[in-house]
Predict the 3D structure of the following.
Amino acid sequence: MREAIEKQFTHCRQKGCLNVYPEPVSYYSDPPGEAWVVRVPDEQYDPERHFKVRNPDGRPVHLAAIDKCLIGRRQPAPKRCDCVFFEGRDVCFVEFKIRAEGKAEEDDRNQETRLLEAGDQLLASIQQFEQDGLLNAQHRVRAYAFVGYGPLFPAPTTTLLNIAELIDSEVRSSVDFDARDSVMF
Amino acid sequence: MNEQLIVKNFGPIKDATVDFKRVTVFIGPTGGGKSTLAKLAATVKQGKMVDFGTSDAEELLSKYGISSYIIEKSSIIKWRLENELSFSIDTTKDSSENPDLEIHQVLTEDYENNYESYKSEMHAELEKYLSEPKGSVLPASLVADIRSKMDSVIKNYIKESMVSILFPLIPHYIPAERILLASIGESWAGIIRDDIGLPKLLVEFANEFSNARKAIKNIKIPFFSAEYSYNEGQDFIKSAENNKLFNLHETASGIQSVTPLLVLLEHLSRNTEQAQSFIIEEPELNLYPTAQQGLLNWLVEKCTQGENDLTITTHSPYILSSCNLLLEAYKVAQLRPDLEEEIAAIVPKACWLNPNEFAAYYVADGTVKPITDERTHLIGGNELDAVSGDISDSFRKLLRLKKQAV
């Protein structure tokens, strides 16, 4: 997939949108503002703000920062998700929808709203990757909404089922959608 | 059949339009108005409110405990069918004909037209008969009496016909208070006889259950692996696990709550000649989530046969997610008919729900909001799940506080 992404998004090398992380455990953050998803040092790991990638076999897991890097924010195009991790046949799209830091609770959107927005953005990214020929039938695709923690309890099952159906019905790939704070490679 | 209820300024409802489908679900906070809408649907569907002059509306609304919800000079309750026939009670109009309740019934033009047409036809027949030569002349007073009686018969006939067209389903309202029934047990008959002021809906449910159990005698309760039986005036539950027989009032609260409901619905659903509308308050009462799912499957299977329909109010996220499961099974089966058996192994075919025959609403703040997602035709983001999200968010905040630097 790496070559296909570099071919499709010619600016990605220059901007550094693609990186490889073979570590058994690594953590990622979506900083506010114009910066895109980046790895954070292990000692700075905050489970409520950082997504965890577990990679016990030390596979060369790629991180492609989608939002604000591969794909700029051009309106009225639908907003894409934040990033995609991939290695071999395994692909995991991730949208960070954590509670806004430093905001009072009344200014913040609730988990339900964050989940629904994440579903739409994950869908938009997977659709674009399919249109661009970056995903094929061999890929095992996951799509995770990271709302600051996971698993959710009590689970908003009806909403999760509906987002799963929305994504599944709008893309060719068979996609495993969930609300998670980590992925295993 | 699609039916629409439009309600304005009635109890907690300020302005609401509800499309009733084969299966209709209401969620919402306590006191938000979901039971009000369900009760109004049950009231109107009885057709007795359409009495063209002398209304039973007050008695009916009182039976459902909602007669005080009428707001003088501003309440509107309108019932509209897809064939454009409609009926409404409207306190904004002149109410001189019915001063007690201040409800004015707006009759459909069809009624007036049908009545006049039949009346002319029948009167012409009568005149023809009277003009034929006879041995003796009928007294004028007798002829006037015949004309008057004939008008009355035509009026009733047209009314009955209109009611059966406007309200083709017989409604059955199952109140939340049903949970009292099993615990009262054999004392029920005496309590009814003494008329201690129990809600009329509960008394009606008790009577209907009493009749139903005599007819049903025995049914299986699949989601409890149990069997109900009625013998010599007593209700029993046999557990499949140990084959022991218990009196119904000795069993777990969930079994006590759900058994009278199942017995009654089983009995009513066997009537295939008359279409029925089942309206059930909080079917999930006293039930563990797996039993809630089992009950929903059972309700959809039993209560949507033929032209029957089902309306439920609920506070249960398990009921909502189970609805999505039944809807998804139908959708997948439409896309992959070749996999029907596999789909049926996951969700029994009798429970599959056609999204076109399903509606779900959030009732609060005086109005209703559909909670089905137009893109997926499933129940989408909803306020019950939002509560789950708020609990999750609050819990995580506490965890964060625990680790906050001193």
